[in-house]
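Ticket #4471: structure output looks truncated?

Reporter: J.K.
Steps to reproduce: submitted the chain below (277 residues) through the standard prediction queue, then opened the result file.
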Amino acid sequence: MERNDTAHFPVRARSHATEHASLVILQDQLPDNWIVRIDRTDYGIDGELEVVDRNRKVVGNIVKFQIKGHRKVRFRAQNVVQRVSVSSINYWLEIPLPVILFVVDVGQRIVYWIDVKSYIHDKLSLVRPNWRQQKTTQIEISTRNRLPTSLERIAQLALSHKEQLKAYQVTLQELERAAKQGKVRRRADIILSEYAQNVMAQREAEEEMVVADFIGYHIFIHLFKGDIDAWEKYLRDKGGVEQLLKDYPFVIWLKQQLQEDKNLINRIKNLVRDTTA
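Returned output as attached by the reporter:
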């Protein structure tokens, strides 16, 4: 049967071909036993990468990633330059897992990468302090950050986050035992108020509190069932010195955030649900 050359047919977009090629190149440069899960919804995250240990055990060492493929990447000095939306960055900062940005030079089959949360905290917020007021901003990736030579650093990034989660669980269990046994003492309100205000002022001066707040969200939901007043009362009535110094300023800050953002409680519940084994 002859084909009518004048008929119209779907045409594959060049961007789709580049996207597919970049993903193939990324997977080619990762260890065979690492697991890549693709997320087709694409709200700033293209998938997740699970690092399998040397004994081939799958133990939850996970990082999220977004991948950007180009036929020709942009360079500035010794850095690859990638423009990203600020909405994507805001989303990355809310995710309670490490997030990697992969930039793939499809023509040269080179994969560059960066730990975006560390980059935002250590560089972007210093060199472009007003980035949150923009629609897009640039991320610069050192050309030394390329696969497969830096695979061990990605593995360490996933592992270090897992170790932090273990520490958080221990802290949560200790707080639960203290609450059940009633072994903590009452403190003066005036000391709490002054200390809380000082710490809250420091919080507002910092760009990123995602990791530091993660355990607080779990305590808020698991132990106090999302009742911020109950948590505040517990600390005032029974809080030990260490709990008051660490937890009370966070509780006061979170209480204000909940009053200002009525949907925040639902986002916290979803975050805790998604990160609870």
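Triage note (M.O.): checked the attachment and the full token line is present. Residues 184-274 form one domain.
Status: closed, working as intended.
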